Sequence to fold (381 residues):
Amino acid sequence: MKIGIVCYPTFGGSGVVATELGKALAGEGHQVHFITYSQPARLDFFSANLFYHEVSVRDYPLFDYAPYESALASKLVDVVRFENLDILHVHYAIPHASAAFMAKQILETYGINIPIVTTLHGTDITLVGKDPTYKPVVTFSINKSDGVTAVSQSLKDDTHQHFEINTEIRVIHNFIDFSRFSLKPKDHFKKAIAPNNERILIHTSNFRKVKRTADVIRMFEKILAKVPSKLLMVGDGPERAYDEQLCRSLNIGEHVRFLGKQDAIEEILSVSDLFLMPSESESFGLAALEALACKVPAITSNAGGLPELNIDGYCGYMSSVGDVDDMAAKAISILENDDVLKQFKENAFARAKEFDLKKILPRYVEYYAQVIAESHQLKNA
Ligand code: GMT
Fold:
């Protein structure tokens, strides 16, 4: 198949899923064309089946806001026409689904039928998408997609709750590539972080309010009082400055390291003992899956799709959003006993195996084939 993928080329979860999916599809012999405004973060190597088309937005003194959606739609028309794509897969509804619909309409005037699959990732539904600023466009473009997937049952339910959807939504969970995410021998790094063999806790995110990063810090303060430990805060975003300040005011700054954005996250996870994700809302929790794959159990909230990933008392624990005391108590119960920690680590790995790329990839390929066949049937009817 010749597949066009549209995504945000940044460190966000939807961009990571889109890029990893594209790489895996290319590995299976499909031709994959990424159409984005800059090179996706994890697409920094050569592969014969991978192509990158940059969307450039021309500025003009009249524009306070340059019309990215129009530039993207125009680029999609160009790439579909000249690369003879079979299907377009857009990740994150805003504004990708509506730009794809516009391109589809234009392509029809050239006699080209291009099926569109939209994957809903999370905040495009739960936070931004349901805001009246975007809601009519999001509703329309989901309903006009030829196929729609959501990364969890919870996100599918939220979509039906917040929008009037008259099309089927297929749940295809996030996945993990074990050829990248596995334990790496990084003992020297562990020694540098935790010279006295302290436990290492980790949080990774984009430090937006929805991640409740202050809960991570407050939880860590309680854990530190019982178990010698260190906290790694990986990523960057609007809450980081406040979080650093909070560490200072709680007098735990010397035990917390803010590492900023990191590419080789699997190396940092490899030295970690426990992952913390107290999110307010989380459609799936890809970062937690990455942790589990590296044998790091997870303390998470029970928001959104997290119960579809985390199994309470097996590969981690879940608590209600904001219940920092409960999260800390459960974290301590894992960390204070070597045998318990060892068992949770093994369970974490076993749980992550359920979401192996090798299991999830065929579900996308089958879905593409189904959507293409249905769309051609509809055209010829
Ligand atoms: O908010 C983020 O963490 C980024 C966001 C995105 O769309 O880039 O992530 C969402 O998509 C991920 C991949 O499907 C999911 O694993 C995350 O749970 C989801 N984030 C939220 O729902 C907050």
